[in-house]
Sequence to fold (262 residues):
Amino acid sequence: MTDRADREPASAFAERLRARFPDATVEVAQPRGEVGITTPGDWLEACRVLRDEFGFELLIDVCGVDYLGLGDDEWDTDVSNEGFSRGVEGRNVGRFKFGEAPSRQLPEPQGEGPMPQPRRRFAAVAQLLSLRHNRRVRVTCFGPDDDLPVVSSLTGLWPVANWFEREAFDMFGIVFRGHPDLRRILTDYGFVGHPFRKDFPLIGNVEVRYDAERRRVVYEPVTSVEPRVNVPRVVRDDARYQTAVGEQRARREQAGKAEGAK
Fold:
């Protein structure tokens, strides 16, 4: 294994990736030095090259990503004299009932509007590790069709991808072409939908209860749980200083207006 102190800098490694994959997008997240590559098409051949030519012998994880609602905050982060964020209106990602569509907050008088659709919504992400070079890389592949996102399975390169891809299929509905046994792995038999998609309500679609009259378990639309936000109400920034500066500025402006009116 290469000594950590002698490891190739992230910028140099990224340049080698750009030279080998000229059509791909290579990014380096600083200051962490995390390198990511997004393939322009299917990722199978790119992953084969990363394994055979770049020495990434281990696959650590495969997951799905849903980019619906990217950039829309669950909380209004404007400065307030309480020093924490305030809740927003609208049925943001996850905060809606079965049969409703997600929406986002808009300035008044509109108040609420439809959630914009990203250009490419679903992606599969693989995390690769090279023990030889003490290096990690993130590989992203977007499904070309949002209605049925399909990417190639990596089980032929790394058999350990099997259950990872089944989980991504179950939670996000991403189909992995060439997978030997692609079926749900976490949800129940007959489950409808994919729970990690942003248009799936956080409260779920159905609830299960035992019906004493029917003497069996029944599935019914969710009625006992209200739509909820996925982000807790947390203190983000101490806004007291900014609030005091704003109040002082407002007092000076009012004093100036009063002086000018004399």
In short: The domain at 4-66+120-199 is CATH 3.30.460.80 (Beta Polymerase; domain 2). The helical segments are 10-20, 44-52, 161-172, 240-261.
